[in-house]
User: Which sequence fits this backbone?
């Protein structure tokens, strides 16, 4: 249907040309019609096809077509009546030029074409009436062309904004997964360098290899899923198993405590699991960085109800990551990880709170509605 609509401007041309032949308007008008059809019509159709295929129009040829229509007005001015064929082609060319002009020369040709189609009808008998009708058509064409120009620019701006948003999302994803895995690699390397036990060295090297391979797989998955416009991005996590895998891969199982409410498996939707997975990864990374891998860690995932401003209650999933004091980690970070996570959690209508527990440890709590709001 859209294709049919974009080519509807061709329908009046055979009707106007046939009408002028039947009514016997004179050879000057027929010559003007033939000249305009031969010079302008192929260019207009070619640019229409190019735009339909997503290509840029040939503005240079379009300018020459507009010049040909201006020349076609010369025999029309000597004829006894107005050429509807030339006027219609001029209207279509005006719309296209107003939409796509770039240089001053093209703008000048647009003005000349518009003014010419107003002046020439005014030279005929009852010229005031003809000039008024032609000016109405030309002004409407200019308005339509400029409107389409604004729509095109709006689409370009929206596309640029979408690209920038996607780049920011990719940067956030890369920060999350690389920081998590690289921090683990550094901690394991430090442990291996300080131990003479071959069993510890073997275990550390094995985990370093696993972390490196896991990071490479996730990076490749992220890039491949975002490099194609038609590819839908796969979520990082879609269920409880992702949380279990994160905790199992963190460190010594003796220092880890995982408590998952049995109701969350079915209650939590996939988009929320994605955010929970990233929050958990960032929280564990920060524990390694600040407290060290030997710090005791407790992870709990449960559902809870909370009151809303409108006196209603809503169901939430609550992720709590708490750690006790440790031997010390790698030092302070930039803080950008938590800021990025807060943006994600806020986008789903939730909240993220992090701070010391008063006993030398740290607590991070994330609360996200089970039915997150739809946001553009």
Assistant:
């Amino acid at each position: 249907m859209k294709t049919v609509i974009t080519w509807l401007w061709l329908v009046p041309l055979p009707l106007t040309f046939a009408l002028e032949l039947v009514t016997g308007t004179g050879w000057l008008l027929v010559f003007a019609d033939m000249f305009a059809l031969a010079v302008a019509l192929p260019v207009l159709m070619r640019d229409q096809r190019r735009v339909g295929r997503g290509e840029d129009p040939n503005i240079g040829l379009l300018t020459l077509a507009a010049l040909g229509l201006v020349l076609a007005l010369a025999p029309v001015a000597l004829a006894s009546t107005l050429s509807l064929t030339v006027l219609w082609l001029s209207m279509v060319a005006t719309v296209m030029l107003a939409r796509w002009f770039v240089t001053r020369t093209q703008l000048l040709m647009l003005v000349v074409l518009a003014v010419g189609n107003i002046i020439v009808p005014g030279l005929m008998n009852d010229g005031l009436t003809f000039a008024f009708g032609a000016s109405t058509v030309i002004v409407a064409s200019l308005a339509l062309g400029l409107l389409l120009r604004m729509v095109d620019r709006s689409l370009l701006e929206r596309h640029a904004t979408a690209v920038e948003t996607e780049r920011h999302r990719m940067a956030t994803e890369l920060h999350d997964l690389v920081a998590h895995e690289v921090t683990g690699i550094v901690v394991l390397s430090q442990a291996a360098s300080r131990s003479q036990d071959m069993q510890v060295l073997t275990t550390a090297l094995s985990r370093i290899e696993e972390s490196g391979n896991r990071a490479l797989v996730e990076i490749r998955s992220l890039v491949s899923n975002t490099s194609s416009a038609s590819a839908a991005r796969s979520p990082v996590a879609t269920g409880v198993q992702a949380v279990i895998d994160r905790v199992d891969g963190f460190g010594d199982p003796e220092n880890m405590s995982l408590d998952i409410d049995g109701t969350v498996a079915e209650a939590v939707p996939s988009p929320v699991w994605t955010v929970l997975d990233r929050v958990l990864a960032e929280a564990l990374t920060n524990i390694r960085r600040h407290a060290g891998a030997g710090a005791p860690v407790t992870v709990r995932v449960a559902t809870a109800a909370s009151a809303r401003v409108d006196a209603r209650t809503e169901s939430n999933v609550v992720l709590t990551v708490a750690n006790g004091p440790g031997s010390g980690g790698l030092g302070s970070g930039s803080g950008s990880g938590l800021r990025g996570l807060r943006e994600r959690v806020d986008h789903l209508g939730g909240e993220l709170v992090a701070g010391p527990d008063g006993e030398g440890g740290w607590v991070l709590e994330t609360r996200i509605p089970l039915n997150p709001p739809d946001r553009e």
Remarks:
- The chain has two domains: 2-156, 237-376.
- Residues 127-193 form the longest helix (67 residues).
- The beta strands are 256-260, 297-307, 313-323, 351-356, 362-369.
- The two ends are 28 Å apart (CA to CA).
